[in-house]
Design a protein that fits this description.
alpha+beta, Immunoglobulin-like, three-stranded mixed β-sheet, 5 helices, 51% helix, 2 domains, rod-shaped, 10 strands
C-alpha cells in the first residue's frame, strides 16, 4: 500500500515538474551561416558571441544587432527581435569578397582595397604612398603656375618697353623665365606620372594579391601564385615536369 502511494506521488510530482518547466521561457536564437564557422556577435542589453552554427539560450529579450563575419567574406549586419517565448532562427548566406570589389576600392581610394581584404598595414602604406605623390603633384603644379605667371609678366613688360635697350635687357629675363617655366612644366608632368604609378600599383596589388586560392593560375607547365601576408608580398613559380 505504501509502495503504491509512493509511486502515485512520484508520478504526480513528475507531471507537475513538466508542467512547471513548460511554463518557463524556452526561447533563444539560433544563427547558422553558409559557410559555417563564422564569428557571430549579438549586441543589445547584453553582448554574446559564438561560432556558427551557434545557439544562444540566454534569457534575451528585445532588439539586438546581429553581426556575422568571416575572413574572405563580406561582413553581415542585421537587427533581430528576440521573443523569449519562442526560438528565433537566422540563416545567413555570406557573400565572398571579390577581386573586382577590391580593385574598385583601390581605384577610388588607394589602400581601401587592401583594407577591404584585411591587409590593413599594407593598405596604410599604399594610402601614404599615393598621398605623397599627390602632395608632390600639388607642389609641382603650384611651382609651374608661379613660373608661368612670372614668364607672362615679363613678356608683358617686354612688349611695353619704350626703347630698344630696355627690350634687350628684358629679353634675357624673358628667356630665363621661359626656361624656368618649361622646367617647372616637366616637373609637373613627372609628378602626374608618379600619381598614375601609385594608383596603378594599388589597383594591380588589389587584383594580383587578392587572398584566395583563385589567385594562382597556370600557363602551360608553369604555375604562378602570388604570396602575401598583408605586409610583404612575393611571387612563386612552379614548373611541372
Amino acid at each position: 500500500m505504501q509502495m503504491r502511494a509512493f509511486i502515485l506521488f512520484a508520478g504526480l510530482f513528475l507531471l507537475a515538474s513538466l508542467a512547471i518547466a513548460d511554463s518557463f521561457p524556452t526561447g533563444g536564437i539560433v544563427v547558422t551561416s553558409n559557410p559555417p564557422g563564422a564569428q557571430v556577435t549579438l549586441t543589445g542589453d547584453i553582448t554574446v558571441s559564438g561560432v556558427s552554427p551557434a545557439r544562444f539560450g540566454q534569457l534575451m529579450v528585445g532588439n539586438y544587432e546581429l553581426t556575422v563575419e568571416m575572413f574572405g567574406y563580406e561582413k553581415y549586419h542585421s537587427r533581430v527581435t528576440i521573443d523569449p517565448s519562442k526560438e528565433v532562427t537566422v540563416d545567413v548566406q555570406l557573400s565572398a569578397k571579390s577581386r573586382l570589389k577590391s580593385a574598385l576600392r583601390s581605384a577610388f581610394i588607394p589602400g581601401w582595397g587592401q583594407r577591404y581584404v584585411e591587409h590593413n598595414k599594407k593598405g596604410l602604406l599604399m594610402t601614404l604612398f599615393a598621398a605623397s605623390t599627390v602632395a608632390l603633384y600639388l607642389k609641382a603644379d603650384g611651382d609651374f603656375d608661379d613660373k608661368k605667371q612670372e614668364y607672362d609678366d615679363r613678356v608683358v613688360a617686354f612688349n611695353k618697353a619704350g626703347s630698344i635697350s630696355e627690350q634687350r635687357r628684358l629679353a634675357g629675363l624673358v628667356a630665363t623665365a621661359q626656361a624656368d617655366a618649361y622646367e617647372a612644366e616637366n616637373d609637373r608632368r613627372i609628378a602626374i606620372g608618379a600619381v598614375a604609378v601609385a594608383w596603378g600599383i594599388n589597383i594591380l596589388d588589389a587584383i594580383v594579391f587578392f587572398p584566395e586560392n583563385r589567385g594562382s593560375f597556370s600557363v602551360k607547365s608553369f604555375t604562378y601564385a602570388p604570396q602575401s601576408d598583408g605586409v610583404t608580398m612575393g611571387l612563386t613559380f612552379t614548373k611541372a615536369f
